[in-house]
Amino acid sequence: MTRTRLTAILTTSALIATGVVGTTSAHADDDPPGTEISAAAPVKVDPNDPDLKLPDGATLAQAKVLDIKSVVEDQSGDERREDTNTSVTFALQAEVLFGKDSAKLGAEAKSRITGIAEEIKNQNATRVRVFGFTDNLGSSAHGDVLSKKRANAVHDILTETLNDAGITYEVRGYGEQYPIADNSTEAGRKKNRRVEVSFPRTEG
């Protein structure tokens, strides 16, 4: 997929996350589907190690490893790619794919989706998720229906391009759920109107 310029690259390092029992932390249910942390802690943490300097009576929560994440967005912001050690996610803004309040794919859409299909093929992915999202304008029910129709339209191009019965697809419309930007501004709402395609990364 051709990009004229990269405007944002963000990488977070893999960390061993431990906490004191009784502290609160974000729950997986608060995150969009498909973003659950999947890696396992590579080392055992000794809870009696004096270098931990825990408060008296405190104990460690179970250790876990946060996925390495790399985020690349093209200059226009129309397309975003997120890579972790376990998966690849493409997010395409709705305006690039569809007309206003429409689920009919526009002229540019097929070439962009075909590029994603090539990456799915390169990763030998057998499971693909296609999720649609909207901003918070209009009714929630309308957003749910529109986001599902848009996800279905992208799914149709993927299946046509890949022509592979061995791939299992999960297609859903989440409407205004799981915004990635502030819905109080048009710039934020534009980012939230999107279709995401995600699939596992090839191991090794």
From TrEMBL:
<dbReference type="InterPro" id="IPR036737">
    <property type="entry name" value="OmpA-like_sf"/>
</dbReference>
<feature type="signal peptide">
    <location>
        <begin position="1"/>
        <end position="28"/>
    </location>
</feature>
<keyword id="KW-0998">Cell outer membrane</keyword>
<dbReference type="InterPro" id="IPR006664">
    <property type="entry name" value="OMP_bac"/>
</dbReference>
<feature type="domain" description="OmpA-like">
    <location>
        <begin position="85"/>
        <end position="203"/>
    </location>
</feature>
<dbReference type="InterPro" id="IPR050330">
    <property type="entry name" value="Bact_OuterMem_StrucFunc"/>
</dbReference>
<feature type="region of interest" description="Disordered">
    <location>
        <begin position="181"/>
        <end position="204"/>
    </location>
</feature>
<protein>
    <submittedName>
        <fullName>OmpA family protein</fullName>
    </submittedName>
</protein>
<keyword id="KW-0472">Membrane</keyword>
<dbReference type="InterPro" id="IPR006665">
    <property type="entry name" value="OmpA-like"/>
</dbReference>
<keyword id="KW-0732">Signal</keyword>
<dbReference type="Pfam" id="PF00691">
    <property type="entry name" value="OmpA"/>
</dbReference>
